[in-house]
Specification:
The protein is an alpha/beta fold. The chain has a single domain, classed as Rossmann fold, CATH 3.40.50.150. Helices cover 36% and strands 18% of the residues. The chain has nine helices and seven strands, in the order E-E-H-H-H-H-E-H-E-H-E-E-H-E-H-H. The protein has a five-stranded parallel β-sheet. Strands 1-2 form a two-stranded antiparallel ribbon. Strand 6, helix 7 and strand 7 form a beta-alpha-beta unit. Helix 1 packs parallel to helix 6. The longest helix is centred in the N-terminal third of the chain and has 17 residues. The radius of gyration is 16 Å and the shape is globular. It binds S-adenosylmethionine. The site of S-adenosylmethionine (SAM) has 23 residues, from helix 1 and helix 5.
């Protein structure tokens, strides 16, 4: 999939997808640049502890990346990437899960984090340099049009990102495309158990806040 066939409108609720993405980028730029501000969601080290990330995963990782962690689950609770494997982290944010995965697959494995928010990408890249990890890179892109070749990854992780996308099927198709046959999809996210009313789905402030 490329950016030309990424959905621009969600017709049934009249939501402009680019407008929504701009609002989401703005929200997560603040999480990157000013994580101590306080949000309607949990962040940082307290969140990682709450989600069951053991201290040894966080030890030695840049405090700046930990501070802007904003996941909603623990994708590694389904299993750890193994040494030598390739991992794609969809919506990698400040890079915490990507850095954890990069240490797990090291030295021969590789991790690619993809995110659409420049401030998050910059923070994640700086974090990798700070701790000397050379097997992880961060690419600007959309989950709905991943900048990753077909069947590249052994594992795809994503944490707290699908809930921000109106076209979840497009993102899931992309995750399936980049996975090798038999690859593992490990998603931490929010599930709703009843349909969201249309007026709520069309309200951008409810997507971001
Ligand atoms: C809740 S944060 C989670 C970040 C990271 N996974 C973590 O656990 O800290 C959501 C991230 O998803 C990114 N994002 C949201 N929608 C996206 C999309 N359609 N394509 C790529 N990135 C997206 C945002 O820029 C933000 O960095």
């Amino acid at each position: 999939m490329n950016s030309t066939n990424v959905q621009q409108e969600v017709p049934e609720v009249g939501l402009n997808v680019e407008e929504l993405r701009t609002a989401i980028r703005h929200e997560y730029e603040v999480v990157a640049l000013n994580p101590q501000q306080g949000f309607h969601f949990h962040t940082g080290r307290p969140l990682a502890r709450m989600l069951g990330y053991p201290e040894e995963w966080l030890a030695g990782l840049p405090e700046s990346c930990i501070a802007s962690f904003a996941g909603t689950g623990n994708p590694f609770s389904m299993g750890m990437p193994r040494p030598g494997e390739r991992v794609v982290d969809v919506g990698s944010g400040a890079g915490l899960d990507s850095l954890i995965a990069a240490r797990m697959v090291s030295p021969a494995g590789q991790v690619v984090g993809v995110d659409m928010t420049p401030a998050m990408l910059e923070k994640a890249r700086r974090g990798a340099v700070e701790i000397g990890l050379h097997n992880v890179s961060f690419r600007q892109g959309l989950a709905e049009a991943l900048p990753v070749p077909d069947e590249w990854a052994d594992v795809v992780t994503s944490n707290g990102v699908l809930n921000l996308m109106p076209d979840k099927s497009a993102a899931l198709r992309e995750m399936a495309r980049v996975l090798k046959p038999g690859g593992r999809l490990q998603i931490g996210d929010i599930l709703v158990q009843s349909p969201i009313p249309e007026d709520a789905r069309s309200d951008i402030s409810l997507w971001t806040g």
